[in-house]
Structure formats: C-alpha cells, structure tokens
Amino acid sequence: MNKTATANKKHYEKVMMLSKRRGFIWGPSPEIFGGLSGFYSYGPLGKIIKNNVEELIQKWLWINGFWEVDAPTVSPEIVWISSGHVEGFIDPIVRCTKCKTVYRADKLIEEFAPNIHTSGKSFEELTKIIEEKNIQCPKCGGKLGEVTGYNLMMKTTIGLDTTGYLRPETATTTYIMFKRLHAFFREKLPSKVFQIGKAYRNEISPRQGVLRLREFTQGEAQTFILPEQEHDFADFKKIENEKLPLLPYKIQMEDREDIQNISLREAIDLGYLEKEAYAWHIWVAYKIYEMLGIPKKRFRLRQHLPDERAHYAKDAWDIEFLTQDFGWVELCGVHDRGDYDLSRHQKYSKQKMLVRSSKGKEVPHVLEIAFGIDRTIYALLEANYVKDDVREWLRLPAFIAPIQIAVFPLMKKDGLDAKAKEVYRTLRQTEFRVVYDEDGSIGKRYRRMDEVGTPFEVTIDYQTLEDGTVTIRDRDTMEQHRVKIEELTKEFKKLIQNPLENLAKQMI
Ligand code: GAP
Q1: pLDDT value of residue 201
Q2: Which residues, other chains included, contact 361 with Cβ-Cβ below 8 Å and sequence gap of 6+?
Q3: Does the CB atom of residue 182 touch ligand 1 within 6 A?
Q4: Distance from the CA of 24 to the center of ligand 1, in angstroms?
C-alpha cells in the first residue's frame, strides 16, 4: 500500500457503504460493541463471494496438481522460533512521547516524506529520518520517540502455561507436515500442496479498513522441489510464451514503474527471473486474477527490491491491484523460499528433512503462492463498482456473483406470481444461485439486483401466460430478450460460463 492513511478514501467509502448496506462485508466487528480495527465479518452475500473465490483457487490449484491440507491455526512457540517469525516477523514502531499513540514508523515516514525509501532501513536509520524530516505525531503534534521493533504475531496460552501463537501465515503449518507429506507422495518430488484458512497478524493501528486485517484468510500453495528440478520444469515449457505485466526490481532501481509486457521466457532470458519452476508459479497465481476479470490495467506483478523481501524469501513477486484511494495494494505474493523453511525446521525439530537426489541427499526447496482472499474480494468489489446517472451497481462476473438469477412476476396478481414461483422452483434445482422477489415495483426490484451484481433477471409477464415465454434482462446493457420457459436452463448455461472450465479444457 503505497499511498497514505490520510488518503482521501472517497471511493473506498462508497464501495464499503454498498457492501455494508447489502450484506457483503460488515464491520469493524464486533459492531454492537463499537468495533475493533482489523476485524470484519462477511454477510450472506459476501460469504457466497468468499466461497466462490476460494473454490476458484481450490479448483485451479487442483487442476495444476496441488493437494489440499488443513492444519491447526495455533501452534506452540517452538514452531515460530523455528520458522524465524519470533525473531524476524517484526514491524518498526514509534510512540508519541506526549499522547502515547503508536505508529508504524515506515508508514509514517512514507506518509510525510514520500520520496524516502524505508525498506531495509535499521531502527536507528528510521529514527534519524524522523528527526531530520521533523515528523511529528499526526494526532497531537508531539515529539516522536525512538523507533523500536514490534512482533506481529498474536500470542496465546495453551492449557495452563504453554505459550502459543496464532499462525501469521498458513505456510509454516504446511511445512511442518513435510515428513508426512513426503511419505504420502511416495517420496516423489516435486510435490504440491495447499491450505486455505485463517491467519492472524497483530497489525498496529490498521487504518486501511478491510485491506489491513488482523484476522484474514489466506490460500497458500507450496511446492517442494529439488534444486536441480527448478531450472528445467516441464509445465513451464507449455506456458513460457504467455505475456504477463511484469515490473522487475531492476526497472524499479532506475526509478521507473513502466510495466514490461513480456513473455515468461523473455523474462528469464533478460535475467528478471531465474528459474522456470518459479516462473510457472507466478503464471499460476496470475491466472486467478485474469479469470476473476480484474481489468488488466489495474493489476501488475511487482518484484520486491532485495532489501524489501521477507526473512524467508530469496525472491518475491507480488500481484498488485491499483485501488483508487490507496494506490497499489498487494493481493498475492509468490515467493522463492529456497531451503530456508525445511532447513530451519530440521534444525529445531531435530527431524531429518532430507530427500534423495542425484547429489545424494538434500533438503528440498520451497516455491510458494500466497493468495490473500479478503484483499482479492475487496479488489473484485472495487473493480466492479459502478455509479452512473441511473444506478449504483456491481458489474461482477456472472460466475462469481452471489445471486446469478432473480425471478420476478411483473405483478403480484392474475396468476403471474404463481407462474413465477413455478419458474423459480425449476431454476432452483439447477446449479445456479437463484432468488425470487415480488416486493415493490419491477423497476425497484431491478435496481436492488443491479446493486448486488445479479447478472440476469427473469420476468414473468402477461405474454408468458399466452405463449410460455419469459424475458431475461441483462444487468449490464439493461436489455431484455424472450426465451421459452423450457429453454431457460440451456440459455443460462450459455450465458453463465465459468472461465476455469474453458481454461481447463485448453490445458488438456
Ligand atoms: N506465506 C507467505 C505470506 O504470508 P504475505 O505476502 O505476507 O506472504 C500473503 O501474505 C497475502 O496475504 C498478501 O498478499 C495479502 O493479500 C494477504 N495479507 C497479508 N497481510 C494481510 C493483512 N494484514 N490483511 C489482509 N490481508 C493480508
């Protein structure tokens, strides 16, 4: 997030107002007790979108050979010492000496001295910048103290006195199952697994609403792979000519932000990417956002600067979405974690993580795709929010929309309602998400459905009683066409397509 908390949040507010009003996202939770920053709930329509996004990721990963696992969200301290999070998962903070408010030091500097790069700077260096730039407490104007470290993990007590932490990522809880997984995969590598579940980070005074949460859902895929397999990866050869919007760090070092729309093969030849297997993971992650229909100009793949990478990463590329109010926001991180994780867990658990290779025995490497589900959902809502002269509505892709078809009688009389209920009951038995609505004028019902992104409405009118046809209204064009009732299901199978099915067919 490279714009500041004081950014004008006009667009964000509009999206969130609609989300709250219509049952997508509620919060901060618990609302009736005043709410706590960083915690949000999904209402009935939001939960359907969340399920749909998770299902898309689940199915896409399965098609690409990943198996799903599920681990506890709480682990004893030793796990997080071993993963490096106790020591390395630290944010720089600064406290106002007067009103005692605490801030993220790097974010505060970025806000008041936007030209200064904060990544990789020590606490002393950050303190010096705050002094030199005369940055004061935004709340009371007081003097800020020294920058110190703050661990982002949420601590808890397991039983009477065992220290535990809520996981700050799902990844580590997958790595610590490696020995079991390796046996499950009959000791073959590469092996691919993923986990979808909650992660927790004790973010300091998060001010970006649903974009910086303290409890959120991740979908994280991990590939265990031998170093010798990383440079020659069969699946890569099938997609090497696909062009992606890349922003390598070498370009950023020249103070440039121009996207390189180049193929992954070119990216390797130009030295932006090193390994075929890693490039393939970037492609797998990218495809999700393409399938979700996020406009191309609003997302990019940005490589981390070397001093920006997390403690475990040898290379990192983020899929970023251009928000109207906060600038580019990371939705998904793709990481080359090398042998960092398994070597650490071998050392701390004293359990061998070695596998057979042509060199004898070695610790496998890990390549990771880390989807943030909640930010992806926000991006979907923001990218598809439209307010024009006539209506305020969501242009959600039909396959992801919480309600796909609404059935209306033109009037609640003359047998139109009975006929409409009959059509509704038939459509309910198909794979589509269908609702029935007879309240208020037909115009109001259309608007209500546009607002929640319903792509199609079926209306039963007087002509239906004569010739058995109904109208289908298209949300985007507001145009209607007539279809015979018995052909409705066939028509919707044509109109509502899941891009995953088409992509899967191409891949066979
Ligand atoms: N296992 C690697 C890992 O956790 P990350 O880049 O820290 O990588 C992955 O997180 C994704 O999780 C991010 O791209 C983002 O979408 C989501 N995420 C991270 N912190 C978040 C937060 N505080 N609120 C909401 N989503 C967050």
Answers
A1: 97
A2: 354, 355
A3: no
A4: 21
Q: What radius of gyration, in Å, describes the C-alpha atoms of the chain?
A: 25
Distance between CA atoms of residues 447 and 12, nearest Å: 21
Mean pLDDT of the chain, nearest integer: 95
Ligand 1 pocket member 313 (CB < 6 A):
no
User: How far, in Å, is the centroid of ligand 1 from the Cα of 1?
Assistant: 12
Cα of 332 to ligand 1 centre, how many Å? Answer: 7
Average pLDDT of the segment spanning 186-206: 95
CA distance 175 to 168: 14
Specify the ligand 1 atom closest to the Cα of 370: 9
Beta pairing class for 41-42 and 25-26: antiparallel
From the CB of 38, is ligand 1 less than 6 Å away?
A: no
Q: Please choose from 217, 375, 376, 378 the residue to mutate so as to test ligand 1's pocket, defined by most ligand atoms within 8 A of CB.
A: 375
CB burial class (10 A; 0-12, 13-18, 19+) of residue 508?
A: exposed
Alpha-carbon distance values, 493 to 192, 405, 507 (Å): 33, 12, 21
Q: Is the pLDDT of residue 5 over 80?
A: no
Tell the residue number behind the tokens 């996207």, with chain if given: 259
Question: Would you give the distance in Å from CA 346 to the centre of its chain?
Answer: 31
25-81, pLDDT tens digit by residue?
A: 999 999 999 999 999 999 999 999 999 999 999 999 999 999 999 999 999 999 999
What is the mean predicted confidence (pLDDT) over 248-269?
94
Ligand 1 atom closest to 316 (CA)? 6
Ligand 1 atom with minimal separation from the 331 CA: 16
d(CA 31, CA 28): 6
Distance between CA atoms of residues 87 and 260, nearest Å: 36
- Does position 3 have pLDDT exceeding 50, yes or no? no
Distance separating alpha carbons of residues 449 and 432, to the nearest angstrom = 15
Are 458 and 407 in contact by the 8 Å Cβ rule? The answer is yes
Phi/psi at 246 (5° precision): -100, 140
Residue 6 clears pLDDT 50, i.e. is over it: no
Which residue type sits at 454?
T
The candidate with the shortest Cα–Cα distance to 101, out of 140, 62, 127, is 140
In the reported structure, the alpha carbon of residue 480 is separated from the centroid of ligand 1 by a whole-number distance in angstroms of: 42
Contact 91, 152 (CB under 8 A): yes
Q: What is the mean pLDDT of residues 288-317?
A: 93
Q: Does the beta carbon of 331 sit less than 6 angstroms from any atom of ligand 1? A: yes
Q: What is the mean pLDDT of residues 466-484?
A: 98
Tokens of residue 251, six digits = 């370009």
The pLDDT assigned to 1 comes to 58
